[in-house]
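=== How it folds ===
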Amino acid sequence: MTHPELRPRPPSPLVEAADERFAAHGVRLLLKRDDLVHPELPGNKWRKLAPNLRAALEAGHGRLATFGGAYSNHLRATAAAGRLLGLETVGIVRGDELAGRPLNDSLARCAADGMRLHFATRSEYRRKADPDTRDRLLAAAGAAGAYLVPEGGSNALALTGCAELGRELRGASDVVAVACGTGGTLAGLAAGLAPGQRALGVPVLAGGFLGAEIRSLQTAAFGGPAGDWTLAEGFDHGGYARVTPALDAFAADFESRHGLPVERIYVAKLLWALHALTASGSFPRGTTVTAVITGRP
C-alpha cells in the first residue's frame, strides 16, 4: 500500500498573471503554482523526492542520506519527508567551518525535523562524486548503507516525477520556464512536454556546466535526449544564494502586483529572466510563457 504522503496529487494550479510588462510585447504569462503541490514538500522537491522515497520504502530502507549546502531547499525537504514517513535522515553539509557555529534557520529546520547533520570539508564535498570519497563521507556521517539521494535530488528516478510536470502542461503553453540548480527538473520537464513545446531553464549558479549534466541525466533516465530544452545563462545575479538589492526589489514588486510570495534564491531569478527576455524581444509576439513556481519563501 502506498504511503499517504506519496500518493499522486492533482495537478498544481495554472493561473494567468496579467502583467502589462509582458502584454506590451504580446507575451502571455502563466504561473504553474507547483509551490502548492504539497504542504511541506513544495514544487520540484516533492516531484523529485517522491519516486526516490517510494523506492527507499519498497527496498526496506529506514534511513536516507543526502548532500546539500547550508541553505539547501533539498536538505529541508528531505528532512521533512523523513519526519512524515518515519525515516531517519542524515544530511552531509558543505563546509566543516559551520560545525562549531549556531545553525542558520535552514539547518535548524532540518535538525528540528530530525535530520542528523554532518559537516564535510569543502574539498571533500567537491569530490563526493568519487565513490571512495562518497563512501568515506557516508561512513563518517554514520550513514553507511543508507538510501542515498543525490545533491538536489536529481537522478533518473527524480526525472520520472518531473516528467509528470511536463505532462500536466501539455497544450497549455509554448514555453515552460523553470529555475535550475542541478538541472533535474528541467531534464524531466522537457521529456514530459508535447512536441512543439520548449522547456527553458534559468540557471541560478554561474559556471555553464548544466548542459552536460542535463544530457547525462536524460541518458540515465530515458536512454538519450528527450524533449526540446534550452538554457538562459547570465541571470544568476552573482551566484547561488546571491540576492542583489535590485533582484529583491523586483521580487517585492512582483509580489505586490500578483499577490504571489516570491522565493528569492530560485523563483525571483526565473521571473527576472523572463521579464528581461520578454523586454529584449526573445519571445515572438503571441507566445504563451509559463513560469514554474518551484518553491515558497
Remarks:
- The chain has eleven helices and ten strands.
- The longest strand covers residues 88-94.
- The longest helix spans residues 44-58.
